[in-house]
Design brief:
The protein is α+β, with helices and mostly antiparallel strands. 29% of the residues lie in helices and 24% in strands.
Length: 399
């Protein structure tokens, strides 16, 4: 969505207020208060300290009470950088018609990759370290939710590669310092997800959206630059950024979670920030809309069934994985819009002719097929790349 983060406080010391605005929270809202309460400022600062290895990592629930209350109440909040900082900030609030346990099961599990719930925003995401141990998987957190008494904190490093930006065509790879926190506050269940970009991202590379963004079909080029006329030379980076996402279970008797996201970002080239608040707002709404379309879909199977289906893909041999990925690109080339840009058409033809294994690593191919598998579960058009994969008892016989 970034200069190296000098400190956590550099990103949070100046979260200020902006002019009021509002939209329906169910549709998605990025809005403001007349003043940014000190309790919310203190809560965000504390969560970032808990996540950052260089900060005070002891969670003190009293420090975040006002923040949790604001999210549960759906209170509008606006963020703006302090004087002297050129990072862009925004806050979004949304509602999700699933339980908090479901959100944890689908979005923060060792056997369901997190990028599966955000295919319009993230190409691939993988926790490379959990609680100081490289290669350790995320713990199974969702069974803890119903009877949770004491807070649970999980920290680690997540490697992320995002999808091409709709306006610039650029995509980036970077590491995040992460923290997940499960806790009860005044009897209500909360999940907090904290992300802080660890270093400056790799240089931005060119990518392209194939068809409608909601089709979740993207191409990735090795060439650096932006996919815009006259800007192919640009060496762009994500310099600094992060987010705090707070999920509040609103009513234990029905599946409803209120989500508040606080996001800030500095990205551009020559250390100049090109990100505006409107860009972050659009990204938050894009993310939340995709998340709801997936997790609220009536044909989405339970977590164990979905995990078993995905295990078929991640268990494929390198040769079969490449063969199915090649089938995906061949189908895109055969059914793609005749008006595809020449560079995109050339890229598709090269992937088919060379074989994807020359251009994509195993993680990227598996992530691509996992998204196609999800699309089939949700009734979206797919090709032969997922034929023969078991989609669970509720989907057998649907084609």
């Amino acid at each position: 969505m970034i200069l190296r983060m000098l400190s956590v406080l550099l990103l949070t010391a100046g979260l200020l207020c902006g002019p009021p605005a509002s939209r329906d929270a169910r549709a998605g809202e990025v809005s403001t208060l007349a003043a940014f309460p000190e309790g919310l400022r203190r809560g965000l600062d504390h969560l970032l300290q808990v996540s950052c290895p260089r900060g005070d990592r002891q969670l003190r629930s009293a420090e975040i009470g006002a923040l949790l209350d604001a999210v549960a109440a759906g209170s509008p909040v606006a963020l703006a950088p302090e004087a002297g900082s050129d990072a862009a900030c925004a806050h979004g609030r949304f509602e999700i018609r699933r339980s908090l346990a479901d959100i944890v099961r689908f979005g923060y599990s060792p056997d369901i990759p997190s990028h599966l719930l955000m295919p319009s925003s993230v190409r691939v995401a993988r926790w490379t370290e959990v609680d100081g141990q490289p290669g350790r998987p995320l713990p199974r957190l969702w069974p803890l939710v119903p009877g949770l008494r004491d807070p649970v904190v999980v920290r680690g490093i997540e490697r992320v590669e995002n999808t091409p930006d709709p306006s610039s065509g650029a995509y980036f790879a970077y590491d995040l310092e992460r923290a997940l926190i499960l806790l009860r506050h005044q009897g209500r269940l909360f999940l907090i997800s904290v992300s802080i970009q660890k270093d400056v991202s790799e240089v931005g590379r060119r990518g392209a959206v194939i068809g409608a963004d909601g089709d979740w079909n993207y191409l990735y080029f090795e060439e650096e630059g932006l996919d815009r006329p006259g800007l192919g030379w640009v060496r762009s980076h994500m310099y600094a950024g992060g987010s705090v996402s707070v999920y509040a279970q609103i009513d234990g008797a029905r599946p409803l979670v209120r989500l508040g996201i606080f996001r800030w970002l500095k990205a551009g080239w020559a250390s100049i920030n090109m990100v505006r608040r409107s860009h972050i707002e659009a990204g938050l709404e894009r993310y939340a809309d995709t998340l709801r379309r997936i997790i609220e879909h009536p044909h989405l199977p339970d977590g164990d069934t979905l995990a078993a289906g995905l295990a078929q893909i991640y268990g494929l041999s390198d040769a079969l994985l490449a063969e199915r990925t090649r089938s995906y690109f061949q189908n895109l080339a055969d059914t793609g819009d005749a008006r595809l840009a020449p560079a995109v058409r050339e890229r598709l033809d090269r992937l088919v002719a060379d074989g994807p294994a020359l251009h994509l690593n195993r993680d990227s191919m598996a992530a691509l097929l996992a998204v196609q598998y999800l699309k089939a579960l949700l009734g979206k058009p797919t090709g032969p790349e997922i034929s023969g994969l078991d989609r669970g008892p509720d989907h057998r016989g649907r084609g």
